[in-house]
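<derive_structure_tokens>
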Amino acid sequence: MENAVSGERPEQYLSQIVSVDKVTPKGFVATVDASADERATIADALDLEALHSLLFSFKIRAVGKNRFALNGTLQASLAQRCVVTLEPLESDFSVDVSLEFWPRDDLVKFEETAEDATANIELDGPEPMDDGRIDFGQLAYEIFVSNLDPYPRKADATFSWPQSDAAVSERPDNPFAALKTLGSGKN
């Protein structure tokens, strides 16, 4: 998602910042539903043919002092170009999401402890939050991007190099055939 210590973020295309003060003891349920303009901007930025829908539904609840757990689902419907035919290829996907959010200071302390000791750290550790705020729109965007098919291909798409019959027949049977003619004096 982002570098926990430095706080560097990719450009934001979809922003919906929510304060964790809104999280009640029963939790906080919300959705991020990208508007037509937001979807068009994201599609343009990612070179998609179209982004028909992008919906992130989730529930967040407290799991400790200033720590929160999120469970939800991101659903998207889009069109990409087939890497073989360059024709539009429609696809839909749904991703279940489970994350924890910790204050940035807690994460820095955790990372320092992990560097000093041989602590067992999960690669998908907690996500940072600043000043008790989480940008759920940016989170939805990052989850969407990380789940895009980098090489979309139609099921029946095949690629073959165009070759004439003459080019195939002139090719030596093996890569060393040309060397034989050099050694025999048949230049």
Summary: Residues 5 and 109 are 10 Å apart (CA to CA). The chain has five helices and seven strands. The first strand starts at residue 17 and ends at 19. The helical segments are 36-45, 104-116, 136-146, 165-170, 177-184.
